[in-house]
Amino acid sequence: MASLRAATTLLRRGISPISPRGARGLAQKSSWQDAALASATQSIKGVGQVVFLDKPAQGNVVLAGLAYGDPALAVLAAVGGASATSAARLLDVDRGSVDAGLCSYNGVLVGCAFAAFLPGAVAPLAATVAGAAATAPLSAVLKRACGATPQFTLAFNAVALSALAYTKPFAVPPPPADAAIGFADVAATPLVGLSQIFVVDSPVTGAAIAVALAQADTSYATHAINGSVVGSVVGLAVGADPHEVVHGLWGFNSALTALSVAVFFEPSRASYALAGAGAASTAVLFGGLKTALGAFAVPALTLPFCAAAATCYALPAALGETGALRLK
């Protein structure tokens, strides 16, 4: 239909669409439209790839959830994905990775982090465009350096922490929370843990993420929610502030680790055990890194997930053929 309208416009101007000039104009317009559509699709896939989803529809569900929980953050998440995608295309990064959204999900997370931790309106936008673009070549380098092990969100952590180490968002500690924690808060904790993957504090956003995961595979949603529960329980067990726990801060890294096991491993009793143990270990790592990086007034982001998930992924090779764990 767009090509037909373009041809009609050319005819009105006295240019035949089948003449060299007209055909060239239509080809250029069609090429531009195709490139824009491809870039948009790759960017929205990047939103889903944060939680290992590679379908545009699933990415749209996640983005809608972000828009409900924090509209401004959702905009920067989309900007980050588009910036990283554009950089990857300009640098001619592996086309398969670009098409799958694997070159843009780190950019999406950069947008989320800068929306949450950088003050003002202009600074987060400018930083997102620049920082997200930097994740594209960095993720390509890290992919090669990590070999068979996925680089997960290392590129995001490197870029975001570099900026946040300068701005020090935790230099002034927040006022102590004095609101009472009710049953509804406790019940919503696992879903809030899912939403905190994108630095959003909303059970509705978490529910949207769970729905998108269930669309791909019901076990993905189950593992992610269970991982969030395990991380929260470990947080309480080690004496974490209950307000931090109900706001999902102890659940999101653990949810990602458990989800990564569901995505990369064949289902088995061993893989279920690994998901639980990995989620618990991730929460312990989060506690340690939270304290260590807190001294520099920066958050731990998803570094605990990267460390734990990489360890889980390497286990089958370490155990050998006699091990019970099998990668897909």
Q: What is the helix/strand order?
A: HHHHHHHHHHHHHHH
How far apart are the first and last residues' alpha carbons, in Å? 43 Å
* Coarse morphology: globular
Structural class based on helices, strands and sheet pairing:
mainly alpha
Rg, nearest Å: 22 Å
Detail the poorly predicted runs. 1-19
Got a strand count? 0
**Biggest β-sheet, characterized?**
none
Query: Average pLDDT, to the nearest integer?
Result: 90
Into which percent range does the helicity of residues fall?
A: over 70%
> Could you tell me the strand content as a percent range?
under 5%
| Structure annotation, total helices | 15
Description:
The chain contains 15 helices and no strands. By secondary structure, it is an all-alpha fold. Helix 13 packs parallel to helix 15 (303-319). Residues 1-19 have low confidence and may be disordered.
How does the SSE layout of this entry go?
Blueprint: H1 2-12, H2 20-49, H3 56-69, H4 71-90, H5 95-99, H6 105-117, H7 122-146, H8 154-167, H9 183-195, H10 203-216, H11 218-237, H12 242-246, H13 252-264, H14 269-294, H15 303-319
Helix pairs in contact: 1-2, 2-3, 2-4, 2-6, 3-4, 3-10, 4-6, 4-7, 6-7, 6-8, 7-8, 9-10, 9-11, 9-13, 10-11, 11-13, 11-14, 13-14, 13-15, 14-15
Main location: membrane
Organism: Aureococcus anophagefferens
Membrane topology: Multi-pass membrane protein
